[in-house]
Amino acid sequence: MSESPVSPVSDEPKYRIGAVCRLTGLSQHVLRVWEKRYGVVEPERSENQRRLYRESDIKRLSLLKALIDRGQAIGSIADLDNAELERRIQQSATAMHLTGAAEKPGLALFGETLALTSEDYSTSEMFSLVGHFDDISKFAAKKPAFRLDVAVIEWPSLHPDSAVEATRLANQLNARHLILVYDYAPRAALQRLASDRITALRSPLDIAALEAVVAWRFGLFTQAEGSSEFIGGVVPSRLFNDRELAHLAAQSPAIACECPMHLAQLITKLVHFEAYSAECESRNAEDAALHSYLHNTTSRARNMMERALARVMELENLSSLPES
Asked: What is the pLDDT of residues 247-278, one digit of tens each?
């Protein structure tokens, strides 16, 4: 059965519970519990007693969901008005930003060539630049008391035994993660380096690739503009399967609005690239961090387009599957 908006009595469209769950990210079970126990919204009823929700209900449920995702208990916020819910979301987003800024991983550069571009890294939002050091042995000999999060080291030529040497060096530097910047490396050497503690990047070092590694290794894939859709690198589940996308892409030219067709085609392309980048992440040790970043970013883009498609479907009274 299509989860399309029901013809409204007023100008405000009404949505069935399946559509509301798709738009807000809530399950039907949770939504029913919230209504019965906390009275968060009061949906209307159709002639056959189906719940009908207004746009204002969807907005309120989305605000509540956003705060729940930030660790708030529904019992403590269910009675708040929308203005207060929005204020708390803004306050939470500000706190997350400040916390993230204070806890950025500390990164140090080791090597003469890296010194030439060290100023480019001082304004990164992904890490804090601890400093640049020409002589890595002198730094290690000082046995710094602080724990270095990331050590970026010039390593012109990698070989199969480099993994052992790099691990030993990481222990000497008291570093949580090593990034080796190389000019030459056989595939066997790169495969041996594939670990949670060491990443190899080809020279010259690109700041975007460096930030991708740091974000991947330290779980810094964060929320965009206060959204709760994508947090901590968790890939959001698909809202439409391949059959549904193919159906929407095929039927849309027959209606006045072709947006569903274009959105379905775009989502299909994002799904394909999402799968491609995930495969590259698992098989390519050299560029694993960058492909992980691309995979997670594509997943977020796909999720945003899916939500847009769901909204268009409701407004255009479309079903995701052909009628049987």
From this structure: 777 764 445 567 778 788 888 888 888 777 76
pLDDT in tens, 291-306: 667 777 788 788 888 8
10 Å CB burial of residue 200 (0-12, 13-18, 19+) is buried
Distances (CA, A) of 162 to 171, 178, 283: 14, 12, 20
For residues 262 and 269, what is the distance between their CA atoms, to the nearest angstrom?
A: 11
Superfamily per CATH, domain 105-217: Response regulator (3.40.50.2300)
DSSP state of 48: T
Can you tell me the distance from the alpha carbon of 278 to that of 285, in angstroms, rounded to the nearest whole number? 12
Q: What's the rounded Cα separation, in Å, for the pair 60 and 54? A: 10
Q: Where are the domain boundaries for CATH 3.40.50.2300 in the chain?
A: 105-217
pTM confidence score: 0.43
